[in-house]
Amino acid sequence: MKYQIEHTNIFKYESIVDQSMNSIRLKPRTDECQRLLSYRADITPASVTKEHIDIWGNHVETFFIAEHHEHLEVKATSIVSIQKSPFIHRIDYSPEMNAIFHSQLFSEHYLAFLSNTAYTYLSPEQMARVDEELGEMKNPVQYSIDVMEYIHSHFTYDGESTNVSTKAEESFELRKGVCQDLTHVMLGILRAKQIPARYVSGYLYVGENSALVGDAASHAWVEVMVPGIGWVGLDPTNNVEALEHHIRVGVGRDYNDVSLVQGVYRGGSQSLEVKVSVSLLDQ
After folding, report:
1. How many helices and strands, by DSSP H and E, does the chain display?
2. Residue pair 279/225 in contact by the 8 Å Cβ criterion
3. At 106, is the secondary structure helix, strand, or coil?
4. Which pLDDT tens digit goes with each residue over 84-104?
5. Which of 13, 92, 189, 206 is the most buried (most CB within 10 A)?
6. Which residues on neighbouring strands pair with residue 264, listed in sequence order?
7. DSSP three-state, residue 54
8. Considering just the CA atoms, what is the radius of gyration of the chain in Å?
9. What are phi and psi of 179, to 5 degrees?
10. Where are the alpha helices (H) located in the chain, listed in sequence order?
11. pLDDT grade, residue 26 (50/70/90)?
12. What number of CA atoms fall less than 13 Å from residue 51's CA on the CB side?
């Protein structure tokens, strides 16, 4: 599957801004299943970007605008190819995999994705309610699938109930939210069971007559580290394995690590308009 993604962020300022420093994480990743064929970032006012790879392996572009400006527009255009087959439901969790999962080396290596953050923390009382529904975790692969199904069946997708700062504890009580919230709740449950799991930001190709649901701007889901195999994506919003319709951009511990656009500026308040288009070019 080949896609073209156009992602535009337009910042409008209440008063003239005389300086701004910004960073963007809009460049899709390249790995064994996803290949970035082309990428371009157009910035107005014109600015030169400096790119680096962050600690999580994400592409980060930073730029500084010194001139006075009343608006900032960042448009990223990417073409990505993805080839991915259903995988996680076919995994036979072996004694060897179980030994890796319980090893000290495994837990030390993925410690960053075992520790809950302010965004992903769930209280012991909330975890007790999860345990009542799901029971004991014996097989981390099957348990991860069960958690995805649990969230999909117990939570409502609702774009009006939460905001970008909402934490998993609050979303859990509301039993609703957007993909960011459902992802944070799933991460909290998995990490409480010592299953390495990370936050993934990117895009979802919905297409015509599709049952998939995702944010108009971007999408988020979970990747679980399967012992001896690697990272496998699970989308609690849609109760599906993240396959060829999921376009990966950034990974991290939570939303804060992968925020697509961040910046500081000197001036008044601002408003933000986001436009995202994901087009299928070739199957």
Report:
1. 7, 15
2. no
3. helix
4. 888 888 889 999 999 999 999
5. 189
6. 21
7. coil
8. 19
9. -60, -35
10. 95-101, 104-109, 124-134, 140-154, 168-174, 179-192, 255-258
11. very high
12. 9
Do residues 267 and 18 make contact, with C-beta atoms less than 8 angstroms apart?
Answer: yes
What is the pLDDT averaged over residues 161-190? 96
Length of the chain equals 283
Which two three-digit tokens encode residue 255?
């939303």
Residue 134 tokens read as 């799901």
d(CA 44, CA 74) in angstroms, rounded, equals 7
Question: Which domains are seen in the chain, by residue range?
Answer: 2-82+260-282 (2.60.40.2250), 88-258 (3.10.620.30)
Does this model's pTM top 0.85? My answer is yes
pLDDT digits (tens, 9 = 90+) for 193-235: 999 999 999 999 987 656 677 656 799 999 999 998 999 999 9
User: Is 19 a residue whose pLDDT tops 90?
Assistant: no
Which residue do the tokens 């990272």 mark? 231
Distance from C-alpha of 213 to C-alpha of 239, rounded to nearest angstrom: 10
Q: Which amino acid is at 134?
A: L
- Provide the percentage of residues in the chain whose pLDDT is more than 90: 76
